[in-house]
Write a structure and sequence with these properties.
It contains three helices and 17 strands. By secondary structure, it is mainly beta.
Length: 214
């Protein structure tokens, strides 16, 4: 066994178990209850029919059924979005990194494209809406008659069919739910000076010998 391989094995043996298990840590998304809490980050957006946008798929955004309990969504199997928030609006990007935009021309529909949605918060039920800007008088909404999938729909389309186009979203933000992971120890390689150990050693406040095998 080489000295380098011995060092690698030794370093791994000293890592805290929590560091190695980080990928399996629980992800908890917590309900957003004010406009001020809407900042750039990772979210699950649940419409008032219990479905969340999934990913952009052609001319639709898929729908994902989401269960929330105690104002939290834990380890969702889909429906995770990245929201990029600034003073000009909010960019919505799905789990594949595709941002979505209204179809344009004040028409019903959705397409891929970086677009800043106008966000409005309703304090009475703590929900958000995502609307078009300029000539696009549309809102992101679920279509109850099309497998609850999502598109941008004109306000008049939504108004004509109450309940047919849920467009109010409860937002759940990732944060505070990730299990705390212990900070890894930092090690550096050095050549032992004197003493009974010789060769390269790892240092974490002391010197650990590296045993060379055949």
């Amino acid at each position: 066994m080489s000295v380098l391989l011995s060092l690698m094995i030794f370093a791994l043996s000293l890592l805290p178990t929590a560091v190695l298990a980080d990928e399996s840590a629980t992800k908890t998304y917590t309900k957003v209850t004010s406009a001020d809490e809407l900042v750039s980050g990772e979210y699950v957006m649940v419409a008032n029919n219990g479905y969340a946008p999934g990913v952009l798929d052609g001319t639709w955004v898929t729908a994902v059924a989401v269960t929330a309990a105690n104002d939290q969504v834990i380890d969702p199997t889909g429906g995770v979005w990245t929201l990029t928030v600034d003073k000009n609006g909010t960019i919505l990007s799905d789990a594949n990194g595709k941002a979505i935009a209204p179809k344009g021309g004040n028409n019903n529909g959705i397409k891929s494209g970086s677009y800043r949605w106008a966000v409005d918060f309703d304090a009475t039920d703590e929900t958000f809406t995502f609307a078009g800007q300029g000539d696009d008088t549309v809102k992101l909404a679920s279509n109850a008659s099309s497998q609850n999938r999502f598109r941008a729909y004109k306000n008049e389309t939504i108004t004509k069919s109450p309940g047919g186009y849920p467009c109010h979203f409860t937002l759940y933000k990732l944060g505070g739910g990730l299990e705390q992971v212990a900070a890894p120890h930092r090690y550096r390689l050095r050549r032992c000076e004197g003493g009974r150990h010789r060769g390269l050693c790892l240092q974490d406040g002391g010197c650990h010998p590296v045993v060379q095998g055949g």
